[in-house]
Amino acid sequence: MTDWLEKHVPKLVLAPSLIAIFVFVYGFIGWTAYVSFTKSRLLPKYDLVGPIQYEKLAASPRWEVALTNLAIFGILFILFATVIGLILAIMLDQKIRTEGPLRTIYLYPMALSFIVTGTAWKWILNPGLGIESVFRDMGFENFTFDWLVNPDLAIYTVVIAGVWQSSGFVMALFLAGLRSVDGEIIRAAMVDGISTPRIYMSIIIPSMAPIFLSSFIVLSHLAIKSFDLVIALTGGGPGYATDLPATYMYAMAFSRGDIGQAASSATVMMMIVTAIIVPYLYSELRPRHD
Amino acid sequence: MSNAMKKEMATPQTAKNILAIENLDKSFGSVKILKDINVAIEPGDFLVLVGPSGCGKSTLLNCIAGLESSTNGDIRIGGRSMTGVSPKDRDIAMVFQSYALYPTMTVGKNITFGMKVRGVAEQEQQRKLDEVAKLLQIDHLLNRKPSQLSGGQRQRVAMGRALVRDPQLFLFDEPLSNLDAKLRVEMRTEIKRLHQTLGASIVYVTHDQIEAMTLATKIVVMKDGVIQQAGTPNEIYNQPANMFVADFMGSPSMNLIPASAEKQGDATKISITRPDMEDIVLDFDREIEGLKSGKKSVILGLRPENITDSTNQHITKGQIADCRVDVVEPAGSDTFVVTNLAGKQVTARLNADATIIAGETASFAFDLSKASVFEPETGARIA
Amino acid sequence: MKNMLLVSSAFALGMAATTAQAEPQAEVLHWWTSGGEAAAVKVLMEEFEANGGTWTDMPVAGGGGDAAMTALRARVLSGNAPTAVQLKGPSIQEWYEEGALGSIQDVAEAENWDELLPEAIQYHLKCDGEYCAAPVNIHRIDWIWSNASILEDAGIEPPKTWDEFNAAAEKLQGMGILPLAHGGQAWQDATLFEAVVVGLGGPEFYRDALVDLDQDALTSETMVQVFDQMRTLRGYVDDNFSGRDWNLATAMVINGEAAFQIMGDWAKGEFIAAGKEPGEDFYCSSPSRGAYLYNVDSFAFFNVDGDDRQAGQQLLAKLTMGKNFQKVFNLNKGSIPARLDVSMDEFEFCGRQSNAELGDAIENGSLLPSYAHGMALRGAQAGAVTDVVTAHFNSDMSSEDAVAQLSQAVAASQ
Amino acid sequence: MTDHSMNDHQLDERANRNRLMKRIALRLGLYTLLILFALYYLMPLFVMVVTSLKSLDEIRTGSLLSLPREIDFSSWGKAWSGACTGIQCNGLQPYFWNSVLLSIPAVAISTLLGAINGYVLAQWRFKGSNILFALMLFGCFIPFQVVLLPMAITLGALKIAGTIPGLMLVHIVYGIGFTTLFFRNFYVTIPQELVKAAKVDGAGFFRIFFSIFLPVSPPIIVVTVIWQFTQIWNDFLFGVSFSQAGTQPITVALNNIVNATTGVKEYNVDMAAAIIAALPTLLVYVVAGKYFIRGLTAGSVKG
C-alpha cells in the first residue's frame, strides 16, 4: 500500500489541478460548443437546433469587422510589441546608468488594468483634449492626430495602447535573454572585429529564438483576449469599427441577451486559439535530444 | 534450458555475491534498452560498466540503484531481492556525474542530509561528518555552498556524501567526466586509494576505457544494451571476446587487419595482402576455431605494442616484415608509427629512440603470441 | 482536498448568513453609483431600514448596466439571484420568460398601483398580468438642452421641431459657434436617432418602426429622411466627438463651447452641479411635437428563497412606490415620479415641464418607450438597430443603404 | 619621412577624436531615445496624477494635459474613504481589503500548486506527462468571457457562488496554467540527478520538494507571484460576475466610481481612485521589478 502510494504520489499530486483544468477548461469549452447549437437567449437552453447560430455569425457584418480587426490588431500588436520590446532591451543592455528606473518605467504599464488607464488614454488620444490639442496650442496649427475618432484608423489607437501596456513585459523577456547569452561568444566576435550592430543582428538575436517564441505566445494570447482594452478606449466604436471577437462575444452574451450567438462566436475564437497554440505546444514539447 | 542452467550456477553464489543481476531486461515502450543482463560481483569488487554512450550502462546503474525499474529479471544486493525496494532501502550510495549537490545547502548539510532524513542522531551525524571530511580533506569547506567550490572540491563533497552512508554498495555514475584532464587523473588515483583502504564494493560507470582499466577488478563492456564481455581487466585487454571489445578497449586501439588464415599441415599461416608490396605471411601457433583445413578470411587483431621496431633488442618471437611508414608520432616515452596494411591504417608502437622517417620503408617485428583472430562476419573471437 | 476545504468553509459561512436574520432582507443590484444617484437611492435604503429591513447594496456600474447584467446573469445561473434588480423595459419580460422573476401582485393590489401609474408604463411592469417590478421614475429622453446665453446672442428660440433645429444650427454655424455637442458612443447615437424618428415621423411612425419593427415603416421614405437628418446632424457636430462621454458633451454646452445637446434629463444634473439655473442659464425643449419618449427605471423581483428575503421584496416594492421616495429620488435624479399623484411643487422648471408634457402625451396616446434606452425592444433587436444607426452616423453610408441594412439586420435578429 | 609620420600621427589623433565624438553622439542619441520612450510610457500616469490633483472646476475649463494651478489633495482622501460606490460612500477602503483577502491566498495557493505541478512535470515525468502539461497550458489561452456562464452554474452547484472562496477558486483554476508553466520551465533546468541523489539519500517526493527544490525557487517564485498578483488584483470580469454585496473586489468599486452612468462625474476623484487601486501592483513592480528580470533570466524563458 505505501509502496503503491509512493510510486503514484506524483500523479496524485497532479490530479487535483488536472481535474480542475478538465472541468473548468475543457468541460466549459464543450459546454460552450454545445450551447452554440441552441437558441439560447437570456439564459442557456439545451434544445439543439443545428448550426443556425453559425449561419447568423457568418452573415453578420459586425462579426466580419471583428475578425478583420483581430487580424489587423493581432499582427500589428504582436509586431510592434516585439520590436519595441527588443529595441528597449538592447538599448537598456548598453550599460545604461539609469537602467533601474527606466526599466521600471517601461514595465509598470503591465501592473495597471485598463479600467485604470482607459480614461487617461481616451483623453490623450482624443483630438480635442489630448496630444493634438497640446501640439496645436504649442503653435503647430496643422498638427493632426485624430485616429481615435476615425472609423478607419481607430483600431490603430487600440494598437498604440496595447503596445504601451505589453511591450515592457516583452522587454523584460528579451532583457533576461540578453543577460543569459554566453559572454564568450560575444567576446570572440569582438576579437574577430565584428561591429556591435552586426553582433546583435547575426549572433545575439538569432540565439534568442526561444524568447521570440515565448513572447509571441504571450502576446498572441493577450491579443485574442483583448477586451478591457477596447471597452475602455473606444467601447468598440466609432460605430463598431474597433470591435474584436472578444467584445463581440461579450456584447452578444451580456448586453444583447443572445447567448447562442455568443457561444458560436466563442467557439470560433477557441478554434483560432487552437490553430495558434497547438503548433506551438507541439514544437515546445516534442521529445528533444539534448 | 540454458537460462535455467545459468540460474542454477548463479544461485549457490548469491550468498557470497554482494550484487547479482539475473536476466535483467528493460524497455521503454517498444525500445529495448537492456537485454538479458547477468552480472555478479563479490564483496570488495570494483566493477566498471564501460561502453559508448547509449549502450545502456547508466540505465543499468539506475536499475541497480532503484531509480528506474526493470521490465524483467532480478537484482540482488547482499543476497536480498531488490524488486519493489525503493532506493533508500537498498543500502547503497551513489555519486553522480554532475555531483548533484543540493545547491542551497552548505557542504556539511549536503553530507549529512541523508542521515538527517533517516533520523540518525545529531551526534552521530557530526562524528561521521568529521570522519569523512578528514578522510577527503574537505574539513575547511564544510560551511561553504556548492557554488563556492571548485570542480574537484565538489567531486570530493559528492563522494563524502556517499561515504557517510557506509553502504554495502557504492554506485558511481561517470563521476570524473566533468573534471579537466589533470584533476581527473588525480581523482582517479584517489578513488582507487579509497577503494583499497575501505575495501568497499563499487559499481562504476564510465565511457573512458582508461578509467575502466585502471580502476576495475572486473569490467563489463556493453553495447546496445547487451553485455559484450565480462572479465578482469587483463582478460578484457588480452582476450577481447569480439571485435567491438577489441576496438573499444586500449589506446591507441587494437589494429584490426583483414587477413586470410591457411592450414598447412599442422602449421597455421596468416597472410596479409598488400597491393603495392609483397604479402606478409606470418606463423600462428594456436588453433583457429572453425579452421580444420584450407583457407579462411579472418580479421587479425594486433595491439600496437605487438608491432615493434625489428632492431629492438628485446624482440624474441617477432617475425620481421618491411612496411612503408606513413606517419611518425613521437609521444615521449614511445613513438607511434602509422603504416598501411590491407588498406587499413595500422599503428605500431616503437621505442622512443627508434630512428624512423616518414615516407621510407622500415622493417617491423610482428608478435603474434598475443594476437587475437576474429570471424569477419560476426566479429566473434576465434583465436 | 483543498477545494473540498474551500467548499465546506464557504458552506458554513452561507449557513450562518441565512439563519442569523429573520427580518426583511434585500440585496439590491443597481448601477446608480454616482454621488447624486447614490443620494437618491439612499432615501429608499433609509426607509427600508426604518421599517426593520436590512439593505445590502450591490452596485455594479458601467456600460449603461452591461456590467450589472453580466453580474446578474452569473448570479441567476449560480442560483444566487439578488433580491431586487434594477431592470427595465422588455428585459423584465425576458427574465420572466426565463422563469426567474417572482410576483408582487399582492403589494400592487393593496397599494392600488393600477390607479397610480400610466397605462403605458404598467405594461412594462407586468408579467402575465401580475406586477413583477416596481417603477422608480420616468426619464424623458428626447430633450434638447441649450445654452441660454448663446441662444440669446444669436437671437434664437429653443427649437421645437427638427426644422427649427436645423435653421438654428445653420445660423450658429454661420456665427462660428458649434451647434451640437455630442458624444460618439453607440447609445448616444441611438438617442439622437430616436429623437429624430419621433420628431420627423410622429408617434405612429415611431411605434411602427421602433416598437413593432414593421418592415414597411423601416423601409419607408420617412426612414430615409430620418437618416438624412442624421447626416445633417453629423454636420453640426465637431470632429472630436467620437467616444466622448455624454457628460463631457454636456460640459461643452455649459461652458459655451456648443449650443445644444440632445440627451435624457439626467444631463440636467450636470448643469445644476455647475451652478446653472434651469430656464435661465439653460433651456430644455423637445423636438417631438407632443410625443414623449420615456425611460422607466424599475426594480424587478427575482425568485428567492427564504421568508426574510421575500418579506424584503414586499417591503421594497411598497416603499419604492411610496410618495416620499418617488419625490425625493426624482428630485435628486433629474427625472420625474412614476406615480402621477406626487406634487411637483418642489421640482424645478424642466422637471415641471416634463411632468406637464407627460400628462399631455398620456392623453394624446403619444407616450412612447425609448428604444435607445432599452424600453422598446429586446436586447438583440435593439442592438441590431443600433449597429446600423451607429455605423451610418460614423461613416459616409447613404441613407438608402442604411435603410436597406436596417431592414436586413432587424429581420435577422428576430 | 618625418613629415609623413607627423601626418600619420595627426591623422590618428583626428581619427581617435572622431571616434570619440561618434561615441558620444551615439550615447547621446541612445539616452534621448530611452527618455522619449520613458515619456511615452509615463504619459498616461502623468495625466492621471495631474488630473487627480486638480479641482473639478479646473478640469472642466482647462486643458487636460496641463499642470494643476493649485495642488489639491482632497480628491485622494475622497477616493479612499468618501467616494460613493453605490449607496455607501466609503470610498475604496472596504473593497481594498476584500481584494487583499482575495488575492493573497489565491496567489499563494496558485503559486504553490504551480510549483508542485511544475516539479512533477519537470522532474517526475511519467508516460503522458507532457501531454498533460500541454493540456494544462492550453488552459492559459481560453478567453475568460467564454467561461463566465458555465462557471456561474458550477459555482452555484458547489454552493460557493458570491463568496470570496468561490472567487478565489476561479482565480486559482485559471492561474494554474501559467504558474505551472513558469515552474516547470524553471525546474527543467535543474539536473535530474538532484532528485536521484536525494532519493538515494532516502528523501521522498515531498521531502525533496520542500528541502531541495523550494529553496532554489525564489527567483521563479518572484516572477510567478508578480504575475499572479497582477492578474488577480486587476481582474474585473470575474470580480464583477462572481461576487456579491460585501465580497466585491476593488476593481468593481473602482468601476462603480469611474463608470457611473447618469450622474455628475468627478474626474479628479476617478483618477485618484484609479491610482489608489493600482498602487499595490505598482508597488510590487517598483520594488520587485529587478527580481522579476532576474527570475526570468533564471530559467523561465528557456524552453
UniProtKB/TrEMBL annotation, chain A:
Main location: membrane
Record-linked Pfam families: BPD_transp_1
Membrane topology: Multi-pass membrane protein
Record has Ribosomal protein as a keyword: no
Keyword Coiled coil: no
GO BP annotation list: transmembrane transport
TM region positions: 12-34, 70-92, 104-124, 153-178, 199-224, 259-282
Stretches assigned to coiled coil: none
Swiss-Prot/TrEMBL keywords: Cell membrane, Membrane, Transmembrane, Transmembrane helix, Transport
An example Gene Ontology CC term for this record: plasma membrane
Gene3D superfamilies: MetI-like
Domain ABC transmembrane type-1: 67-282
Subcellular location: Cell membrane
Annotated family: Belongs to the binding-protein-dependent transport system permease family.
PANTHER family the record matches: ABC TRANSPORTER PERMEASE PROTEIN
Name by which UniProt lists this protein: Putative ABC transporter permease protein AmyD
Source organism: Maritalea myrionectae
Phylogenetic classification of the source organism: Bacteria, Pseudomonadati, Pseudomonadota, Alphaproteobacteria, Hyphomicrobiales
From TrEMBL, chain B:
GO molecular function, a single term: ATP binding
One cellular component (GO) term of this entry: ATP-binding cassette (ABC) transporter complex, substrate-binding subunit-containing
Localization per record: Cell inner membrane
UniProt xrefs under Pfam families: ABC_tran, OB_MalK
Keyword vocabulary terms for this entry: ATP-binding, Nucleotide-binding, Transport
The keyword Ligase is assigned to this record: no
Membrane topology summary: Peripheral membrane protein
Domain ABC transporter: 19-249
GO biological process, one term: carbohydrate transport
Superkingdom classification of source: Bacteria
Family: Belongs to the ABC transporter superfamily.
NCBIfam families named in the record: PRK11650.1
PANTHER family: ABC TRANSPORTER ATP-BINDING PROTEIN, MALTODEXTRIN IMPORT ATP-BINDING PROTEIN MSMX
Record-given protein name: Monosaccharide-transporting ATPase
Organism lineage: Bacteria, Pseudomonadati, Pseudomonadota, Alphaproteobacteria, Hyphomicrobiales
UniProtKB/TrEMBL annotation, chain C:
Keyword set, alphabetical order: Periplasm, Signal, Sugar transport, Transport
Superkingdom, taxonomy of origin: Bacteria
Pfam families registered for this protein in UniProt: SBP_bac_1
Subcellular location as annotated: Periplasm
GO cellular-component term (any): periplasmic space
Keyword hit for Transport: yes
InterPro entries per record: Bact_solute-bd_prot1 (IPR050490), SBP (IPR006059)
Signal peptide (from-to): 1-22
Subcellular location, principal: periplasm
Family according to the record: Belongs to the bacterial solute-binding protein 1 family.
Function per UniProt: Part of a binding-protein-dependent transport system for a sugar.
The protein, known as: Probable sugar-binding periplasmic protein
Species of origin: Maritalea myrionectae
